[in-house]
């Protein structure tokens, strides 16, 4: 039985009652967790694994997943501690720990991805899985991927601050108590993105749950992006870096520096979009991803 903050998680009977694409949802037991997973498209199509970023959930794909389902069988889980998926034990909150948990889910589903795509920290999880041999997609796509440490002193200060907030049991509750619509809107616009009212409200509903906030803080507090960054030259997987030109959370220049570290990578810059580019303009992102998937042989040429 969940206790404390873990009991203050989003409730499927409450927050989930009108969750985007609820009809695509199911719950799966894997890697010691109960996962919320959404699936779209024909099971006969190539499998696409979608991983959202820190603080989000499957709602992040509400516009993009149906578009990609025209060509793929799309699997989109809530990451551990996010949305409606159980949290990991604190000892497993590292990037490798998260990658192992998602690998356990993929194994339980029996659908190894031909294409893996992740937003922000979700892209880091997928890169770690590729490096560890847990998945072997023909194409890895990162939407404003968090694949490099923050520049300068922020690389030391940000994880330390997140760790202090994570360890303080009152922080998630305080954040949840103050998470009204205007606060969610300010947080989103601070990343360079602008979402419609429904998109903002979905984030507000998650931020208002202390258990979800704790999951996001734990993810940020326990990751070593410097270690992943050092390992990237060994990532043999063909990689597509999709970048919103107005991203204020991960500067677009980061993607071009990453491209030069990776054996087989290319950058596609989409101007006028921020960190949540895939939510702002899902049609544009789907078009870029579909074209690269065709070029990589994941899809048959049109």
UniProtKB/TrEMBL annotation:
The lineage of its organism: Bacteria, Pseudomonadati, Pseudomonadota, Alphaproteobacteria, Hyphomicrobiales. Residues 48-288 form the AB hydrolase-1 domain. This is Magnesium chelatase accessory protein. It comes from Methylobacterium radiotolerans. InterPro entries: AB_hydrolase_1, AB_hydrolase_fold, AB_hydrolase_sf, BchO. It comes from the Bacteria.
